[in-house]
Specification:
heterodimer; A: alpha+beta; two-stranded antiparallel sheet; 2 strands; B: alpha+beta; Cytochrome p450; about 45% helix
Chain lengths: ~50, ~425
C-alpha cells in the first residue's frame, strides 16, 4: 500500500515485495506522499519523525 | 468455563450470521465487542479493529500452531477444527513459519503478480468470450470462480484441463450446505485433489518443470509440508478472490456512476479494489489459540482458549472507518484488514488484487450494461469463515468474442522472469 501512495519514497524488493524507504529525508515536495504512506499502512509500520 | 465472561449465545456458522453478518457483528461491536461463546467447544470472539489488530500482530501469545489440547485435532485456523493436511506457513508461528514464507514470497511479490497481469487479462477475456454471445451468465461460475481457478492451476503447473473441477470444488465447499449432495461430492473431489497433488509434487521433485509446484517440491521441506503449502495456495487463493469479485460486481450493477472512471483511472481502480476488500472481506474470520494468560478488551483469556478473529467485523468498525457500511470507492485512508497483518498477512494478496482488477475491467468494458438479478442472489450457506454469493446471474447486451486464447505458458516462471 505504501508503494501505491508514495511511489517516490518507497522501494519494493523484486524478490519478496518487502518495502524499504528510499532515503532518510523527506523533502517538502514529497511531504504529502509521506503523510499518505503513514495513513495507508495497516501494519502501522510507517512513521514520520521530525528532525531538527 | 465459569471464569470466562461475558458469555453470548453466538455461533458464527448460524443461519442468523449467514443471513446478515454485517448486521450481527455491528450489534456485537456496540454491545459486547469481546465475548465467550460455548458453541463448538467454546471460543472467544473479537469484533473490534483494535483487538483484531492486536491479536494478528502477536504470534507468541495468539498462536496459529496446532495444539491437540485446544479444541482437538485438525486445522488450527478454523473453528470448529477441520481435518486437513497442515497448511504451512499458515499453521506455524514464527520463527518456524519464516522458512516456508521465504519460499512463497518471491513467487507472489508485487512484481511477480504484475508480470502475470497480461496473462490474467487474456484469461479474463477468454472466460468472457465463452458467454458474451449469450447475453446472460452466472458471473460467479463463469468468471469470478473460473479466472482464479484456471490461473491458479496454470500458475502451479497442474494439468490445465483440471481447472473446472477445481473451480466447482472450491466454490461448492465454501458456498453450499454440508448436507447438500453437491457439497459431499465437492468434499470427495477435494480429497482426491490432495492425492493428485501429492503425486504431482513427487513427479516434480524427480523431474522439475518451469512452474511453482517445482519450486515448492525442490525446497528443503518434507513432501507432506510441500503438500500442505500447495493446498494452502489453492484453498487460500481461489474462492476468496471469487467472493470479493462477485460481491463487487453485484454492487457495481446497482451503482453505475463510476464505471467509466474505474476503466479510465488506474489509481481509482486501485482505491476501489481496497474498498471492496474492506467492505466484502472474503475471509470473515480465522482462529488462533491462546498461549499463556492475558487480558484483551477487559476479558481474561486463558491458555489453550480458542479465539475467533473477526477480520470482516474489524473492517466495519466505525471507530476506524467513517460510515463503514457504505462503499466509498475513493476512501482514504483505508487500513483494512481483509488480508490480515503481521507475519501471516495473506501471501497471495498481490495476485488477488491483479485478478480482481482485471475481472472488474473485463466486465465493465465487455458487458458494460450488465444487470445482476438481485432477486436470485443467495449468500453462502454459512458465512462464519468465508463469505460470498452462491451465484450472481446477470443479463447484458450480447457481444462478440475477442478470440482470446488459452496460453498456459503465460504463467511459467521463466516467462515471468523474462518480462
Amino acid at each position: 500500500m505504501c508503494k501505491a501512495v508514495a511511489p517516490d519514497l518507497v522501494d519494493l524488493s523484486e524478490e519478496d515485495g518487502h518495502a524499504t524507504p528510499r532515503g532518510d529525508e523527506i523533502t517538502p515536495d514529497l511531504d504529502a506522499q509521506a503523510r499518505k504512506a503513514v495513513l495507508a499502512c495497516p501494519e502501522g509500520a510507517v512513521h514520520l519523525v521530525d528532525v531538527e | 468455563m465459569a471464569d470466562r465472561a461475558p458469555i453470548v449465545d453466538f455461533d458464527h456458522h448460524s443461519p442468523q450470521v449467514a443471513a446478515d453478518p454485517a448486521k450481527v457483528y455491528r450489534e456485537l461491536r456496540g454491545k459486547c465487542p469481546v465475548f465467550w461463546t460455548e458453541k463448538h467447544g467454546g471460543y472467544w470472539v473479537f469484533t473490534k479493529y483494535e483487538h483484531v489488530a492486536e491479536l494478528l500482530s502477536d504470534d507468541a501469545r495468539f498462536s496459529s500452531a496446532r495444539r491437540s489440547d485446544a479444541g482437538g485435532e485438525g486445522s488450527s485456523v478454523s473453528i470448529p477444527k477441520r481435518p486437513s493436511v497442515p497448511q504451512y506457513p499458515l499453521e506455524l508461528d514464527p520463527p518456524d513459519s519464516v522458512p516456508y514464507r521465504r519460499i512463497l514470497n518471491p513467487l507472489l511479490s508485487p512484481a511477480a503478480a504484475e508480470r502475470v497481469r497480461d496473462g490474467i487479462r487474456t484469461r479474463v477475456a477468454w472466460c468472457i468470450d465463452q458467454f458474451v454471445a449469450r447475453g446472460e451468465c452466472d458471473l460467479v461460475r463463469e468468471l469470478a470462480s473460473a479466472v482464479p481457478a484456471s490461473v491458479t492451476i496454470d500458475w502451479l503447473g497442474l494439468p490445465h484441463e483440471s481447472w473446472p473441477r477445481l473451480s466447482k470444488t472450491m466454490h461448492d465447499i465454501a458456498a453450499l450446505n454440508p448436507d447438500d449432495p453437491r457439497w459431499l461430492e465437492a468434499s470427495q473431489n477435494l480429497r482426491q485433489m490432495y492425492v493428485d497433488l501429492a503425486q504431482v509434487i513427487e513427479q516434480r521433485r524427480r523431474q522439475p518443470a518451469d512452474d511453482v509446484i517445482s519450486v515448492i517440491a525442490a525446497a528443503p521441506i518434507t513432501p507432506q509440508d510441500a503438500l500442505g503449502m500447495v493446498g494452502l495456495l489453492v484453498a487460500g487463493g481461489v474462492d476468496t478472490t471469487t467472493s470479493v469479485t462477485s460481491q463487487a460486481l453485484a454492487w457495481l450493477s446497482d451503482n453505475r456512476g463510476d464505471h467509466g472512471r474505474l476503466l479510465a483511472d488506474a489509481s481509482f481502480l486501485r482505491s476501489a479494489t481496497e474498498e471492496f476488500l474492506r467492505m466484502y472481506s472474503p475471509a470473515q474470520a480465522l482462529a488462533r489459540t491462546m498461549n499463556g494468560e492475558t487480558t484483551v478488551g477487559g476479558c481474561a483469556i486463558h491458555d489453550g482458549d480458542r479465539l475467533l478473529i473477526g477480520f470482516a467485523s474489524a473492517n466495519r468498525d466505525a471507530d476506524v472507518f467513517d460510515d463503514p457500511d457504505s462503499v466509498m470507492l475513493d476512501r482514504f485512508p483505508n487500513r483494512h484488514l481483509a488480508f490480515g497483518i503481521g507475519m501471516h498477512r495473506c501471501v497471495g494478496s498481490n495476485l488477488a488484487r491483479v485478478m480482481f482488477e482485471e475481472m472488474i475491467r473485463g466486465v465493465l468494458s465487455r458487458i458494460p450494461d450488465y444487470v445482476v438479478d438481485t432477486s436470485a442472489l443467495r449468500p453462502y450457506f454459512t458465512q462464519g469463515l468465508a463469505s460470498g454469493w452462491q451465484q450472481v446471474p446477470a443479463t447484458f447486451t450480447p457481444g462478440r468474442p475477442t478470440g482470446a486464447a488459452i496460453d498456459v505458458t503465460a504463467f511459467r516462471l521463466s516467462r515471468e522472469a523474462a518480462h
